[in-house]
Design a protein that fits this description.
Elements lengths: L2 H20 L5 H32 L19 H10 L8 E3 L3 E7 L8 E6 L2 E8 L5 E6 L3 E11 L8 E4 L4 E3 L8 E8 L1
Parallel strand pairs: 1-9
Antiparallel strand pairs: 2-5, 2-7, 3-4, 3-6, 6-9, 7-8
């Protein structure tokens, strides 16, 4: 056999071996599937590592007082914690009132200069007067009351200058004058219905 014939013969035997390997139970397709699975797992791990490093480096750019401390957030506040928060809320000189009526008029007025103070009035969590401009003459709002204690919140939407200056009158039960409170603050008091 000459060298050319030997090369052809060895090519034929190699071809028959590869044919017999492809018919074996472990095929190239299953090993490539396993390879693809491993490559996919490596890719996922790589993405997670990159995301972790990016998020870690981004948090370094945030000021420490802007980072959310999840331990301070009460996700499901209890009635006791809500009562404590309300008890600690500033009243800014507003006193509780006792009435024998199912509904009352709350008159809100600016007890200083009409300088552009705006407030929002809420009773028991429901807004009854959103962004009311406080005038010296007053704005009257009729609100229904539940039996017992009714929480009144007056939120300072806008300070026209010198603090939000407010006087409130509950159905002629007496005028209450608040101390000036800052924009963004909430003054509270209770109306107790007997």
């Amino acid at each position: 056999m000459n060298p050319l014939q030997q090369q052809q013969e060895s090519g034929r035997s190699h071809q028959s071996q590869s044919t017999s390997l492809s018919s074996s139970p472990i095929t190239d397709s299953s090993s490539s599937g396993l390879s693809k699975l491993i490559q996919g797992g490596v890719a996922i791990v790589a993405v997670l590592l990159v995301a972790q490093s990016v998020l870690g480096s981004l948090s370094n750019f945030l000021p420490s007082n802007r980072r959310l401390n999840l331990k301070q957030v009460e996700l499901n506040p209890t009635a006791a914690s809500q009562r404590k928060a309300l008890a600690e809320a500033p009243r800014y000189g507003l006193d509780d009132k006792v009435v024998n009526q199912e509904q009352v008029y709350i008159v809100l007025r600016d007890n200083g200069a009409e300088d552009g103070d705006y407030v929002t009035l809420s009773v028991n969590g429901k807004v009854y007067a959103p962004r009311v401009f406080l005038k010296n003459a007053g704005n009257s709002v009729l609100v229904p009351l539940n039996p017992g204690a009714n929480l009144v919140q007056i939120y300072g939407d806008r300070d026209g200058g010198g603090g939000v200056t407010l006087a409130a009158d509950v159905s002629s039960q007496g005028n209450m004058t608040s101390s000036a409170f800052p924009e963004g603050a909430t003054a509270i008091f209770y109306i107790i219905r007997r």
